[in-house]
Amino acid sequence: MQSGLEDVLSANLKIKKMSKEKVYIFDTTMRDGEQSPGASMSVEEKIQISRVFDEMGVDIIEAGFPISSPGDFEAVTAISKIVKNSVPCGLSRALKKDIDACHESLQYAKRFRIHTFISTSPVHMKHKLDMSKDQVLEAIKESVSYARKFTDDVEWSCEDGTRTDLDFMCKTIELAINCGASTINIPDTVGYSIPEEFAKTITHIKNSVPNIDKAIISAHCHNDLGLAVANALAGLSAGVRQIECTINGIGERAGNAALEEIVMAIKTRNDLMPYETGIKTELISKASKIVSNATGFPVQFNKAIVGKNAFAHESGIHQDGMLKNRETYEIMTPESVGVKKTSLVMGKHSGRHAFKDKLSDLGYADVTDDVIQNAFGKFKILADKKKHIYDEDIVALVDDSLIFDNKLNAINLKSLKVFAGTGEPQRAEMTLDVFGEIKSTVQTGDGPVDATFKCIKELYPHEMKLLLYQVHAVTEGTDAQATVSVKIEENNRTTVGQSADTDTLVASANAYLGALNKMLIKREKKAPSQQIKHQKVRGI
Ligand code: KIV
Ligand code: ZN
């Protein structure tokens, strides 16, 4: 039973908690993030990512740039159909056809946002747009008003904002709000600003734009000088209430402000930044892995929050301190971002039920029975080969099963034997099921991986270019599973395949086949809308 005083105190605490100002998290992993050179995601992968974002509490998901490609259009459409909590958003230039494509792809969502932008800096207006200030103002009026015909949630961005004349910027913002924009985004497009300056820009906007109280100010900071997160947080202190960011900080060139860093900085230093984001931080690690798997972009070991070493303590002094009290060297717990302590989990005698419980523990409560069955089969095989099976092994297996939905695969590995070592050229013998036909070959190569990939090319001839081949160990020890990522390219389209196995060469073959199967699916896909002419739009 609480005393009267305790009641009052806890009520006060609740009011205090509730009265924290909200900071909206706008994720652009699938739009700006996908603009990272080489980071393309399939529609299926984007759907998977959106489900995690939706559950994680991302307020707005920028799902793509619908006019830019049939794939983007399709992804935005699919995402607008499945999100339950987040607001899906599409990007458009200041053009009616772009806005139409946004509307057409987003219309299935109960609420959606159209994000339209135009450059306002002298260098962009002159060299990129070849437009005068008056023409830019006219384009803002037309585009924002047109977008408002479809939704009352319109965001407007002044591209290259931080190199824009401040007085002109204020004029454009006032106009965009008058035309109906309710979010005004200030991009540091080229990552040029520094925190003090970015905060000053926001303060200037707040003090000079007469109707600014009718809109939320947003920050979209790039990381060219490594200051994206610092700039966005400086903006927050000056009045920004929406931050645009990406998982793992991916994005054009050096990337965008990393979602996980923004959210955990606000959470950890809530004494200085008393805001609320609504993000379920325990899902951060899962989101990071899923984005890394889909893009084939590894996360650097020392990356803040989501790097492999972010919670590792190597030096004896640190380990000793941690054993005495974890607060000696830990400002946030690994559990708070969904990193579970490595544990020795299961053995070859563990049953399907225990396996399913473990998956649920690891954040895979919602995977289908097919995926569980597939992952469980792989687990049994792994348990026969590997003495200790860790959480990371299980995660690798289930990710593998999620990505390799065998029903989608036209080409499957039946068997592989590789002869490696010194002296003779390395040789691979492979049997594949190619569209139901069993085919075998023997090839030699410059190394076992080369011989393996040559077998695939021989059994299914193709011209796709290998862009990336990468191996990392899932856990420690010589019996660790290897996760292999392979990225291939055909006609400017890229796909990524990933696979984990204790045999690096089997994982390599399966990763290559995964990328190949995805490419075959991409080849078959037609433009979803006949009315919309898709354009290659890059280098925003
Ligand atoms: O960096 C940028 O300016 C952008 C805009 C389209 C918001 O990505
Ligand atoms: Zn950007």
Question: Can you walk me through this structure?
Answer:
- The structure is a single chain.
- Strand 2 (24-27), helix 2 (43-56) and strand 3 form a beta-alpha-beta unit.
- 41% of the residues lie in helices and 20% in strands.
- It is of the alpha/beta class.
- The model is unreliable at 526-532 (pLDDT under 50).
- The chain has three domains: 20-295, Aldolase class I (TIM Barrel); 312-402, no CATH class; 411-523, Alpha-isopropylmalate synthase LeuA, regulatory domain (Double Stranded RNA Binding Domain, 2-Layer Sandwich).
- An eight-stranded parallel beta barrel has the order 2-3-4-5-6-7-8-9, surrounded by eight helices.
- It has 17 helices and 18 strands.
- The termini are far apart.
- The structure holds 3-methyl-2-oxobutanoic acid and zinc ion.
- The site of 3-methyl-2-oxobutanoic acid has 10 residues, from strand 6 and strand 7.
Please supply descriptive tags for the structure shown above.
3 domains, 17 helices, globular, single chain, Double Stranded RNA Binding Domain, eight-stranded parallel barrel, alpha/beta, three-stranded antiparallel β-sheet, 41% helix, 540 residues, binds zinc ion, TIM Barrel, binds 3-methyl-2-oxobutanoic acid
